Amino acid sequence: MALKTGEQYKESLRKMRPNVYKWDRLIEDITTDPVTRGHVASVAHSYDMSFDEKDAYIYTAKSHLTGEIAHRWNTLPQTAEDQMHNARMKRHQYRHSGTCKGATCAGWTGMTVLWAVTQEMDKEYGTNYHERLKNYFKYVEDNALALAGAITDAKGDRSLKPSQQKNKDSHVHIKEVREDGIVIRGYKTQICGIVGANEIIVVPGGGYGESEKDFCLAVAVPRDVEGLTCVITRKPSDTREEEEGWDAPKVGTITQAYLIFDDVFVPNERVFMAGEYKYSGKIIGYFAAIYRAAIGACVAGQGDVMIGAAINMARANGLSQKVFQDKLTQMAINNEINYGTGLGAMLAGKQHESGLYIPDALLAHVNKTQVAKLPYETKVITQDISGGIAETGCIPSYKDFQSELYGEHLYKALEAATDGESRTRAARLAEWLTVGAGIPGCMHGGGSPDGAKMVVKALTKWEDYAADAKRIAGITGEIVEPKKK
Amino acid sequence: MALKTGEQYKESLRKMRPNVYKWDRLIEDITTDPVTRGHVASVAHSYDMSFDEKDAYIYTAKSHLTGEIAHRWNTLPQTAEDQMHNARMKRHQYRHSGTCKGATCAGWTGMTVLWAVTQEMDKEYGTNYHERLKNYFKYVEDNALALAGAITDAKGDRSLKPSQQKNKDSHVHIKEVREDGIVIRGYKTQICGIVGANEIIVVPGGGYGESEKDFCLAVAVPRDVEGLTCVITRKPSDTREEEEGWDAPKVGTITQAYLIFDDVFVPNERVFMAGEYKYSGKIIGYFAAIYRAAIGACVAGQGDVMIGAAINMARANGLSQKVFQDKLTQMAINNEINYGTGLGAMLAGKQHESGLYIPDALLAHVNKTQVAKLPYETKVITQDISGGIAETGCIPSYKDFQSELYGEHLYKALEAATDGESRTRAARLAEWLTVGAGIPGCMHGGGSPDGAKMVVKALTKWEDYAADAKRIAGITGEIVEPKKK
Amino acid sequence: MALKTGEQYKESLRKMRPNVYKWDRLIEDITTDPVTRGHVASVAHSYDMSFDEKDAYIYTAKSHLTGEIAHRWNTLPQTAEDQMHNARMKRHQYRHSGTCKGATCAGWTGMTVLWAVTQEMDKEYGTNYHERLKNYFKYVEDNALALAGAITDAKGDRSLKPSQQKNKDSHVHIKEVREDGIVIRGYKTQICGIVGANEIIVVPGGGYGESEKDFCLAVAVPRDVEGLTCVITRKPSDTREEEEGWDAPKVGTITQAYLIFDDVFVPNERVFMAGEYKYSGKIIGYFAAIYRAAIGACVAGQGDVMIGAAINMARANGLSQKVFQDKLTQMAINNEINYGTGLGAMLAGKQHESGLYIPDALLAHVNKTQVAKLPYETKVITQDISGGIAETGCIPSYKDFQSELYGEHLYKALEAATDGESRTRAARLAEWLTVGAGIPGCMHGGGSPDGAKMVVKALTKWEDYAADAKRIAGITGEIVEPKKK
Amino acid sequence: MALKTGEQYKESLRKMRPNVYKWDRLIEDITTDPVTRGHVASVAHSYDMSFDEKDAYIYTAKSHLTGEIAHRWNTLPQTAEDQMHNARMKRHQYRHSGTCKGATCAGWTGMTVLWAVTQEMDKEYGTNYHERLKNYFKYVEDNALALAGAITDAKGDRSLKPSQQKNKDSHVHIKEVREDGIVIRGYKTQICGIVGANEIIVVPGGGYGESEKDFCLAVAVPRDVEGLTCVITRKPSDTREEEEGWDAPKVGTITQAYLIFDDVFVPNERVFMAGEYKYSGKIIGYFAAIYRAAIGACVAGQGDVMIGAAINMARANGLSQKVFQDKLTQMAINNEINYGTGLGAMLAGKQHESGLYIPDALLAHVNKTQVAKLPYETKVITQDISGGIAETGCIPSYKDFQSELYGEHLYKALEAATDGESRTRAARLAEWLTVGAGIPGCMHGGGSPDGAKMVVKALTKWEDYAADAKRIAGITGEIVEPKKK
């Protein structure tokens, strides 16, 4: 059973132990609770799309383990084209719900990265991580699972290493090594996709040295594993998604969570790194190259929806798209730069000997810097075109529209080239995308742009360029980096 | 009694008829209701500052009517320096509450513009509007009133004139002229400061021709006048301001409202324009020149708070301000451009023969284009420096922190170089300023940047520049604007 | 003989009829004249690199005609990887000389595009253009020729079609059809690489309709064909390249020319289109997709040299690269966006049935918009880091340094952390790259960004995005593009 | 005789000793030599404008010494309005010639700054510098002199102080103190306006401490003083201004020079600082506040000409201004921001007790950062609108147009909606303004933007903003700048 429908996927979630909270309230049925149903629905849609006549090729791929068709997020990308389809799927998903799904993304990428890194570790250390991972990979494919990826630790004081923190729980770590597994504890924060995931891939939040080896662990745990509590975070205007009415769009939502690992036991077959600090940086490096090459597709897909939202607002206001064509074209350009630079990273990449295709790191990190920049410009244009009622959602609430006293007046006041409700809904979408619950956190999500710039710095051949310039300038005298004085 | 304390001002609000709603609920006491108390508190602060030993000079000025010291928003700016103090006050106010106050701004400016335009109308038409306005101005000063300004109409289909709209109420208009006054009806929308205002100055939303003379009216009405209903709009994450806890800062808030004028009678002594369409454009022109020269101070003041928020977040994360100094300096530059260009408009302006000082329109509208641009850059930097928890406020709710089950874990997870609560509060402020209820709507608030660009186009001497360039290039042949082909 | 050395290539040029002019002076030996030697030298370098142990793989490829190794600019790119190597070669070339070579670029691309379009034409019209082109392609490969591409016409009044121009010569056109060939005349302007070319590929400057069929021609002519006169244009500070001394770098130069076709006869075997207007747009379309996907590599390569120039200047001034690291990283990011988006276009492209691989047009044109933008930012940073003497080359002339009276003083005045000559040379390079003869014309070269934006507009799925947004917003009412009123 | 005509001014220059060189050639008559005549002509124009019926008020002001009307550049600005007229004059001058004049700018500002600083020094040290300066000021006014200002030293290694340089001449310094005066030597570089100046005001290039007191000198010397040699620098395409024909516009030019002070004696009455290091920073501080508040007017004026150049090119190409209106409006906005922020600095400034009006330093330095930025954007737009022939001046030389062989063809090839010569001239102007001899060096001229940013950093109230943010966020815990770890 390599493919599940959306309904089968939901069923799998309903069987799990409730351990997700918001508002200090336990969410009993994650598939129907107002807080989480939107997120689950959007992941379910990707399951259903795997059977779509026209687009199934985007949502599925051939398994490298079984040769069968599986959900794309259960397979190993082996070529530049495979990675391009990862990007295509992300853009398609965003165009469906307008925002992030989470549970077909970072966990999957984490698992494929471990495919490569476990092979390297086994080679050096004679461990059997790769075999474990292969079995786990097979399990995931066979059960058509949705995976979340838990990378970001709570971190504590940024000027200190994990081992120097006042509270060791600031980073998830190995508390105890037992014969049959390990016990882990600590906090992973701002984790996307938990609500829609069957499983969580946990990897280190950074590349570490020997002193930090307790923090170098990679495991897979069921989302409902004993000892794990998940607390969903707030996001802008989150209550609207839980309210009745149209004050937020409801096709799909994004949720993020804080994970409290309170002495969670992980059996050996689910442990893929346990102290091999030398390879923690590899995990981060491969992960970032894949993830940041594809992430431009996410913001491009959301940008596509912003284009549509802006066109609708213009028309709802009685104005032609032509009035704003230059701005709309700029939005499209922004989207395509984010999308295209990622694709460029893929073309310039190469295949790891394990079979995993890894995009070019320099271009992938360059793309991240633009993912942290261009969508903001696109949002500003969305607000520019959409006008004042969209900019901050400056419209009375859905409840006020229901008022017997003045509701009719509000419908009339909002009416323009379309009816008052349609125009309000159009404005609410623009608001939601730019300052509402739809914003996915493109600046720091998946790592901060300053970190990406450091990688760009590390990978750029400064001295080669300086030498070229010297030669072209005809300089024969000495020009050197000054010593510290 | 030209000066009131904050408490006296609140008392004046409490005496008014309740006619303000949100959530289909009538707000009985506007000074204490969770929806409105923040807004009132921030206006009250400006009243109190009029007695401040150090800063009273910013919040007060000498009356041109009585020679006495009055609240600045009850006086006529007569010099570039006076207008600069308008800007200074705005920046100071934003630095106090982090956002807009509304009730010491557009209404005041509207009244001073009418001071000039009524004089011009009287000259041409022999009307006595200026005398009426003078009496009203005196009344405002004597009673130390807070004024909102209602300019923006609901507008309907933007490709049609007011008179062509399906629903005439799309714009506030004169429904009936009686001997003792006029009856007006229609919708003014997205009106700032209503909650904190004693009075509302209503002026036309555009400059109109003869066919639209019904829409050319200028009046002053008490906020609680019979026939007027005010509905407060939503804004991002608005419920947090009404909730208990720290998920939104609460020093001051901004509110905006839809005004439903349902046959409101205005007695003649409060009517300052009634059909003199030729002067409707003058009102808009003078208003925009004053307003858009000063508005840069608003966003500069909010930008100052963003600088502070970003510094606090950096430090809360354990990092020095120095790490981000280039970015912080860029934030300061953005603020000062918005502030400084407005001051430049003031220096380049001149005094109207009525005594009102009017900044240079070209520079004021140039400033508006930057007010719609630079604060967005400043917000992006705020998020860049502040990190992921601030970008989208990706932290569990206040309620979750109170959880007996896992609240302690959350405090620990958020702890870094400061305690968990302080870091959460610091992040919430950054969120509130950039994607939360603190965003004042700098793009379209006070008019859209595209409109400002049209004014820039109209006021720029294109042909003079083309002639200069021809002369410098030594061109003697003919180069002309092509005719339509 | 599929590969030539640089010297052999020069020899081939020396055998040609002199028909190139500058300063109203005929250039007798194009390989040694101060006006042209730099350009020829830089093309010769690419010939020599075809034998380079390390980098020959960049400068050569396997011929699709003979299976032999040929100069890359004599072969047909058949995969995304082939096109990526086109980009790599361009970046490599720029890093060698600091500027454009011209004669291994547009002519080559033109020939490969004709490979595809002639096949299409033959299919529809039963012509034998493809066979002719194949023979010509073979001739080029066998003789290892350098090709220039002539696309841009003089154009005349931009608001008129070619056939409507006062002077038909504004566009190159078919003057006469003879049995054995055609006679063409008119002006091609701003043509790059003529000086280094053996042959010129002439294609239409636009996609035309039936009324313009005289302008729809594609031919190959030797650069020294009878009836053709080439006039080299000025460029900023061009005289320095012709002067003695160091006031311009001299590794390689770019030249552009105006081509005067004064009744040039082209025999049938060199005619690949003659009136088939329907396919003129195809030529432009395929050409632009290939050219604009690769052009980012050109500006990236020049940007690499700017990075080097800036680092050298910083160090020459006594400052560490670290002082400017953020700015240098931004330069690298700009370069990689231009390079990477082009690669993305390649990955998203597909193979034409003729075998030619054509990148994705949308991404290629998006890249062009950034090629017209990011290098300017990179130049500004180069000037920012390099300081005042580089910004405008504000240093006395080479001649002044030779002055017996004050030459020694100048050396001393320029001395800093390196000797005066080295620092001057470093500054001259920065000047040359940013406001000197090294600037290649990235804005309009290869077509203007406004044209690229029109293609982006044409290829973006506006209505799909509007429909997505409507669905997500939950809009059921009608929102449509307004009709003209 | 407080006012001179342009001819009288030229006469005064002709009387001076020739000591200016270019191309290792002594310029005998600075008013007619092809290298310098353009610069002199543009300064002469400002003299003539002092008698202009319409605009004399811009070019003249009332003397604070005599109460008579004098050239503005011979008077002391005492109010914000006076400084605004400084800005107006600069913008007017740029609109006349398209570029910088130099000799009515920095020297004048230097003299007015010394007016203030000498008063302060006298107060502390009991010196009589102010009296000397007053006499010198009177002399300047009486003789209607043009002044250059020499500030920038050759500097040498930027990581070392002046006294640490290998060559002490890297900075102009006091070599010897005699009873009747001082002997100075060293290099001032990139000095603007020397060619058009009667006198040179020499001030320190930085604010120094006691160890550098030899470098703390302020003097006035005639341009032709014994021991001084001036070498004019190259600038982009400089030879064109010295050639016959239209390849460069010739209304006015800018020149810069290296000044070699080879033991120049300055009598005491022309010495205004000699070792009072404590006040060297004051000179720089006041100078920068005045200069950088006004410099925006320079780039605005040049930007005005760019607007005209772009409009002319569009029309010459057959296109309407309307096609490019958004871009043109953006150019205007850029100009006005540079102009307006400077005016804002003036309004926010205050009068020094000596009478000199000094703009606000923070806003002035903010403006400098934009002077180093916005004109580049304006240039890019100029090139964008103007098309390929303007971008790099890709047109054959004037000489080629005179060719009997093909000159006529070139005229025809360039013809569009205007004749070939006019279109060529229009393109040459756009080239000259953006990458030619007309570029004034707005990045580093008058000091580098990084220096301005350091001032912005120093003058911004970071801790105040952090405290505001803490208060608004409701933070009571401790958040502090981390200590070095």
Automatic annotation (TrEMBL), chains A, B, C, D:
Occurrences of domain HpaB/PvcC/4-BUDH N-terminal (ranges): 5-273
Pfam family, one: HpaB
Segments crossing the lipid bilayer: none
Superkingdom of source: Bacteria
Domain HpaB/PvcC/4-BUDH C-terminal per the UniProt entry, residue ranges: 282-474
Keyword Isomerase on entry: yes
Keywords: FAD, Flavoprotein, Isomerase, Oxidoreductase
Record protein name field: 4-hydroxybutyryl-CoA dehydratase/vinylacetyl-CoA-Delta-isomerase
InterPro entries xref list: Acyl-CoA_Oxase/DH_mid-dom_sf, AcylCo_DH-like_C, AcylCoA_DH/oxidase_NM_dom_sf, HpaB/PvcC/4-BUDH, HpaB/PvcC/4-BUDH_C, HpaB/PvcC/4-BUDH_N
Keyword flag Transit peptide: no
High-level lineage: Bacteria, Bacillati, Bacillota, Clostridia, Peptostreptococcales
